[in-house]
Specification:
By secondary structure, the chain is of the alpha/beta class. The protein has one domain: HUPs (Rossmann fold, 3-Layer(aba) Sandwich), CATH 3.40.50.620. It is 36% helix and 11% strand. Helix 1 links the parallel strand 1 and strand 2. Helix 1 packs across helix 7 and helix 7 crosses helix 8.
């Protein structure tokens, strides 16, 4: 860990920042817990690449120590509505959204992202990696589940020099994992998150206007409604 000017250890964390509602809230939570944040975003060939501009805005507003965008071409493999010529599902019911793994699942995405975050964390002396996975109001992704996070954390401590030789316990932090979307929104608003800077849509217009019908939009709108708040984003139609 780096030393502050007063000789104290600086508590660093890598925060995965997609530009969405959840990851923006996680960034704010990490900072509220005293972490110096290094935010990491990925240009992975996603159809909703406009999220990277949102991530950059959020990182700048939050005053993170560093913000990096790493290119990883998952479109080379495809297999997802976000990285292939597959239609994004629209107008599904909450029951449908919560059943099975949808075509918006990107194979191994969180495994890839966390692995690269782990590499950066080891380089900068960060023992904590924050990710905005959620096991309640989510779309059935297997790499958002607690058992995956526990397994990855165990692997991280077996696969790194700091974990095997330096006596550092690496931790994957998931502060949202048992929260509803409305609870996440309340937490973020209490921490001053400006959700007008974020984007959640899987199929936005060329100018970034959210469709209002994909799973991500529907879960976001449901969360704001249950929180008794108005989503600051404008939607198509």
């Amino acid at each position: 860990m780096a030393l502050k000017s007063d000789g104290a250890r600086e508590k660093r964390a890598v925060v995965l920042l997609s530009g969405g509602l959840d990851s923006s809230t996680v960034l704010a939570i990490a900072q509220s817990q005293g972490y110096v944040v290094y935010s990491l975003s990925f240009d992975y060939g996603q159809s909703h690449r406009i999220e990277l501009a949102a991530a950059a805005r959020i990182a700048e507003r939050a005053g993170v120590a560093q913000h990096r965008i790493i290119r990883v071409d998952l479109r080379s493999f495809g297999g997802s509505a976000l990285t292939d010529e597959i239609a994004v599902p629209k107008a599904r019911s909450v029951a449908e959204i919560g059943t099975g793994v949808p075509v918006t699942y990107v194979p191994a995405r969180n495994t890839v992202f966390l692995s690269l975050a782990l590499a950066w964390a080891e380089v900068i002396g960060a023992a904590d990696i924050f990710i905005g996975v959620n096991a309640l109001d989510y779309s059935g992704y297997p790499d958002c589940r607690p058992e995956f996070i526990r397994a990855f954390e165990e692997m991280a401590n077996l696969a790194t020099k700091v974990g095997t030789e330096d006596g550092v316990r690496l931790r994957i932090r998931t502060p949202l994992i048992e929260m509803s979307k409305s609870q996440i929104i309340h937490a973020g608003l209490a921490l001053g998150v400006d959700y007008s800077l974020t984007t959640s849509c899987y199929d936005p217009s060329a100018t970034g206007v959210p469709c209002g019908q994909c799973d991500a939009c529907l879960l976001r709108l449901k969360g704001f409604a249950e929180a008794g708040r108005t989503d600051p984003l404008g939607y198509k139609g």
